[in-house]
Amino acid sequence: MNKDDIRLTPISNGTVLDHLPVGTALRIIEILGLEKAEDAVTVAINTESKSLGRKDLMFIEGKALTKEEIDKIGLIAENGTMNIIEKKEVKKKEKISLPKQASGLIKCVNPKCITNIESLPTKFTLTQNPLKAKCQYCEKTISGEEIFKAIQ
Ligand SMILES: [Zn+2]
Known about the structure:
CATH superfamily of the largest domain: Aspartate carbamoyltransferase regulatory subunit, N-terminal domain
Order of helices and strands: EHEEHEEHEEEH
Low-confidence stretches: none
Number of strands: 8
Structural class: alpha+beta
Number of helices: 4
CATH class of the largest domain: Alpha Beta
Helix content: 10-25%
Strand content: 25-35%
CATH architecture of the largest domain: 2-Layer Sandwich
CATH topology of the largest domain: Alpha-Beta Plaits
Bound molecules: zinc ion
Distance between the termini: 37 Å
C-alpha cells in the first residue's frame, strides 16, 4: 500500500473519483445529485496525496457517470482520475479532462441573459489558463469560483 491508498473499503461496483482538487468533492456530490443516492457514497476530503500534496477522493457505489456528468466534473477537477470498478476490480481508469465545449453544463450568471429568461440550453466557449467561460448569447464571461458555482 502506498500513501495514496487510504484505509477505506473499496466499492464493489461503481466509480472512484481520485486526485480531485481539495474542496471539490462536496460540490461534485451536489452536481451529481448524490445527496439522494440509494447506494453508499464515501468521501475523503483533504487527504494526503503523493502527487498533489492534498486531494479529495470519492467512492460512488453502483453508479457509472454519464458523459455530461464527467464533463461537468472536468470543469472543476481537470486532471483528476476516474476509475470504473466492477466486481472490486479496476475495469477502466481514465484522466478527467476539461470538456471541449460547455453547452448546457453551466448556468449563465447574467439574470438578463436570454437563456435565463426563456430557459434555453446555455452555450459557453471555454478558454484556458486560467479557465474562462463566455456565454455565446450575452457574452458574459465567468471564471474561477463563478464557474464552480454555476455548474448546473
Ligand atoms: Zn448569458
